[in-house]
Structure formats: C-alpha cells, structure tokens
Specification:
By secondary structure, the chain is an alpha+beta fold. It has eight helices and twelve strands. About 35% of the residues lie in helices and about 35% in strands.
Length: about 325
C-alpha cells in the first residue's frame, strides 16, 4: 500500500519505473543505467520535485494558455507527502490545492484543502484504515503492474547534456500504448464482481476504437552517471496529431451533421493545442521535514467512502 500511495504522488512528475531492468527493451548500457535509476528510487528516503505542465490552445479565435504547477515533498518509511497544486484557468481564475499524506500506525490520513472561487476554504481529512487493506494482495497487484511495465517499456540513450552545470545522461523512454489496456484489464479482473460483462466489453471497445489509436507515450529523463534523477519532460504533439486523425475518421463515418459539426470544432482546437511538461528533482535525501500546521491538524474529518455495490446484468428471460 505504501508504494502505491507513494507512486500516486510521484506519478504527478513521472511514470512508475519498473524494477526489472533486464526485462526492459534497450541496449546493455541503457539497461545498466536503468537499473541504477531503479535502485536509487528504492533507496531514496526523501526529496523534492517541481512539476510544470503547460496547455496552449485556441477556441473561437481566442488563445488560451493554462499553466499548472505542482510542488511535491515526500518521505518514505513511514510515508509522508506534501503537495501544492496551482493553476490559472481561462479568464484569470486561480485554483489551488494543498494536501498532506501521512502514514500512521493504523491508517493513512490525507489532509486537503481546495481554493477555487471560495477563498480560505477549510481543511478536511480522510482517514483510510490499514485494516481495510490486504498488504499481501496489494504486493501481488504491484508485481503484476510491474510485469506489464517491464515488457512495455523501451529505453534509449540520447547522449550527455550539460544542465545547470551538471553533466547528465538524456534517456528517452517509450511506454507502449497497449500497457494502458493491460493495466485497465488487470484492474477489472482484480475486482470482477464490480464490473458487468457489458462494462468489460465497453472497456475493450473503448481501447480498440479510441485509446489504441493515439500512439505510444514517450518522455525523457535526465540522470547522472550514478542514476540519480534530476529532470523529466514530455511533449504530446505526436499523440495530439494521432487523436486528430482519429476524430477525422470518426467524423467521416458519422451520418449525424450535429456530430460532424462538434468534431470539427474540436479539430480546430487540436490544430493549435500543445501540451508540454517539465519536472525537476532536487534535495535528494535532504528534503525539509514535513510538519503539519495547527490548522491542518484540526481539519474536519469526512467519512471513508464505502465501496459501491456490484452491478449485475438483469436475468435473461
């Protein structure tokens, strides 16, 4: 459970790194460096990360730019995390999210506060009892996820670069599109009672008809010779182009003039849409201690949500 929650925080900045370097596609040198990255990730006690995402687009001849910033501090054993998210929406509307994640002896506690339109919103907390989790089952699930990623990732060394006075290796990482489908199916199989046959068929169709058409996901990481991670970046321009082609095909096959008009509007947006991201990692094993302010400690507790009842198909007559 701890690793899943930690990866949830770190996923804001980079994809989960598989632990089996030999299974990753790539040359020997790339695999050896990948193993160092993996070992460093497992041994990292704490650190900081700044993640920036920028979305640019045009709608009705008006240009929009939406910057998003995440500032993350995390500690392991016990797990602790502090995250700030700030974004500036169209029209100059700011939205901020603060949260802390704290591992206690018997539970995980998430403290959070969202400021959007209503300023100075109160802190709230959600307590997740550890007794609700089967650590062995979670570990098995993690291993299955790692096995999917191991066979789905290709790594390629792109050469050395001097960044802020530090000589770093630029490594290109490609995650095969099918990994998303495999993980989706794995999740549904872990809780088969929660998904009807119709739901599973819908998920398969969604992947086949849509998700599979937008291509693999490629990003870059910059690490030193010891495998310490300092920077990641991605640009979704190729995926956006493939999404545009997918929508063009859908519009061409559609007999609805209303659908064609709506798709045309989306395509006009996509022609000017860019989504880029860059993250920096620092204070490796030197992050500031996470201390909860008094107002956070006094947060109002909200109920832990009960799982939704399983949906079943009506009996056929």
């Amino acid at each position: 459970m701890k690793k899943i929650l930690l990866c949830f925080c770190l996923a804001l900045a980079a994809f989960l790194l598989p632990l089996n370097a030999e299974a990753v596609n790539g040359g020997k040198e790339a695999q050896e460096l990948w193993q160092k990255i993996s070992d460093n990730g497992k041994n990292l006690k704490n650190g900081d990360c700044d993640l920036r995402i920028l979305l640019n687009t045009t709608y009705n001849k008006t240009k929009y730019s939406i910057p998003v910033l995440y500032k993350i501090t995390f500690w392991q054993n016990p797990l602790q995390g502090k995250v700030f998210m700030g974004a500036l929406l169209p029209g100059g509307m700011p939205i901020n999210l603060d949260y802390y994640l704290i591992e206690n002896k018997d539970n995980f506690t998430v403290y959070f506060k969202t400021d959007f339109l209503k300023k100075n919103s109160p802190w709230q907390k959600l307590i997740v009892p550890k007794k609700e989790m089967d650590e062995n089952e979670v570990k098995k699930f993690e291993e299955k996820i790692e096995a999917i990623l191991d066979k789905s990732i290709t790594v390629k060394l792109k050469g050395e670069e001097n960044i802020n006075g530090r000589l770093l290796n630029n490594m290109q990482i490609t995650l095969a599109n099918k990994a998303f489908y495999d993980i989706l199916i794995l999740i549904t199989r872990e809780k088969p009672d929660s998904y009807s046959d119709a739901s599973l068929k819908a998920l398969e169709s969604m992947y086949k008809d849509y998700i599979s058409k937008v291509g693999d996901f490629t990003y870059n990481v910059w690490v030193d010779k010891d495998g310490t991670l300092y920077r990641t970046a991605f640009d979704l321009k190729d995926n956006i182009k493939k999404l545009s082609k997918l929508l063009e095909d859908i519009a061409e096959k559609s007999s609805s003039e209303k659908d064609k008009k709506e798709i045309k509007t989306i395509l006009e947006m996509l022609k000017t849409t860019t989504i880029t991201s860059e993250s920096t990692y620092y204070n490796h094993n030197k992050a500031a201690e996470i201390i909860l302010p008094e107002e956070v400690k006094n947060a109002q507790a909200i109920a832990f949500p009960e799982p939704a009842p399983a949906k079943t198909e009506p009996a056929k007559k």
